[in-house]
Amino acid sequence: MAHNVRLKVNSKFVNKYRGGFPLIFSDAITNIKDLKEEGTIVNLVDEKNTFIAKGYYGKQNKGYGWVLSKNEHETFDKKFFKNKITSALHRREHLFGEEDTNAFRVFNGEGDGVGGITIDYFDGFYLINWYSVGIYQFRQAILDALKDSVDYKGIYQKKRFDAKGQYVEDDDFVAGERGEFPLIVKENGVQFAVYLNEGAMVGIFLDQREVRKTIRDKYAKGTNMLNTFSYTGAFSVYAALGGAIKTTSVDLANRSKPKTIEQFSLNGIDYEAQDIIVEDVFHYFKYAGRKNLKFDLVVLDPPSFARSKKNVFSADKDYKNLLKEAIAITEDDGVIVASTNSSAFGMDKFKGFIQTAFQETGHKYTVLEEFSLPEDFRTIREYPHGKYLKVVFVKKLK
Ligand code: SAH
Q1: Angle made by CA atoms 60, 391, 228, in degrees to the nearest 5
Q2: Do 210 and 156 reside in the same domain of the chain?
Q3: Separation of 251 CA from ligand 1 center, angstroms?
Q4: Atom 9, ligand 1: which residue's CA is nearest?
Q5: Which residue has its alpha carbon closest to ligand 1 atom 10?
Q6: 48 C-beta neighbours (distance < 10 Å), count
Q7: Which of residues 69, 96, 119 is at a domain's end?
Q8: Which ligand 1 atom is nearest residue 299's CA?
Q9: Are 167 and 158 in contact (CB under 8 A)?
Q10: Closest ligand 1 atom to Cα of 256
Q11: What is the C-alpha separation between 56 and 350, in angstroms, rounded?
């Protein structure tokens, strides 16, 4: 990069950045238009040109880049990244020692000091997610730092550069040996088939580890369970292992059926005794209503935003209605696991959706427990927004 760009922080936000806020966003910067080339090093300064912090320009849906250091003389080289990575690994040392789990996050973006990148661990394989063209400019330094810090079988990557953080390109293999896929990993003693070479979604969302365990250990026994937006059926597998009498998994994507069969089979569950339905969840709710089907345990884990042939679902606008549909087919004293990964709203607003949905359907409820991200998805106090996951277990009362 030619030279650093000086970004003037709007006086309203100076204290925020001095206090450690990591995200560079346009409202906070008076000369955001000076940013031209992603990967450019930026120095944040106040109105008197006093140095505040240093970072890089990288465009994501969230903002324009991340602060990486408060040291004006910092260079973002291999040594810098190695420090960050080794600290992150150190914090998770106990996870590497676990017998029952060998898939978890080892580096969580700004939570571990470098926004724009995450690294996940899958039984000896590392998967790097790059969230902007900007952070990708540091690829060599970061890769060298990772290779120096871990024993790895192989390293894979996903470039998620476009505005919505979607996946852009299919050259996933980076270093070491190529994996044989599916790679079978363990989580709480449950087996999962993972594909690091098939696009953005690898088969399991690691942030729900504790929620899955809770479902298996405390809620599944003896239930007729419905898993909506089920993807590879992870919640259904845990429910079946926890003693659910039957599980029903519903997802729109054709791939979800063979993938769910695969996960059941890996865990010795007879998939033919389960229902795996490829359908729009909103159709399924209507069908279930007509047939008077009721469930004791309903998992709602939709994407933040999705478009199907007939519906556009956006969590901040539509979650309440989704809940109402779910409430209608949940038994009295049944449990709804309401989950969202939307960063458009926080826990309070989410609980507001739950309250309104129950109010409008005329049912009482009680909140049983709540979850956010597990410890390996580290977040920092200065950026609570990074804590995107919200999961509430609610009991429907008469
Ligand atoms: N709950 C899953 C992850 C869900 S990912 C898990 O824990 O593993 C989101 C899933 O929602 C995708 O598999 C996608 O195919 C599905 N999806 C999106 N819109 C849908 C709709 N209207 N009906 C059913 N499935 C939908």
Answers
A1: 90
A2: no
A3: 5
A4: 303
A5: 229
A6: 6
A7: 69
A8: 1
A9: yes
A10: 13
A11: 33
Judge if 235 and 348 occupy the same domain: yes
Q: State the distance from the centre of ligand 1 to the C-alpha of 322, rounded, in angstroms.
A: 13
- Judged against a pLDDT cut of 60, whether residue 1 lies above it is answered with no
What pLDDT sits at residue 307? 86
- pLDDT score for 105: 98
236: containing domain = 205-396
Give the residues surrounding ligand 1 with Cβ less than 6 Å away: 205, 208, 229-232, 234-235, 250-253, 256, 280-282, 301, 303, 306, 308, 311, 313
Mutate to test the pocket of ligand 1, among 249, 251, 371 (most ligand atoms within 8 A of CB): 251
Clarify whether residues 154 and 217 are in a common domain: no
Proportion of the chain above pLDDT 70, given as a percent: 97
In whole angstroms, what is the distance from residue 275 CA to residue 297 CA? 15
Inter-residue contact 335 to 308 (CB < 8 Å)? no
Task: Name the token pair of 375.
Answer: 């410890």
For residue range 19-63, list pLDDT tens digits in order.
999 999 999 999 999 999 999 999 999 999 999 999 999 999 889
pLDDT value of position 65: 97
The single-letter code of the amino acid at 50 is T
Whether the predicted model's global pTM rises above the 0.90 cut: yes
Q: pLDDT band at residue 102, thresholds of 50, 70 and 90?
A: very high
Task: In whole angstroms, give the CA distance from residue 204 to residue 207.
Answer: 9
Cα 291 to ligand 1 centroid, rounded to whole Å: 23
What pLDDT band is residue 306 in, cutting at 50, 70 and 90?
Answer: confident
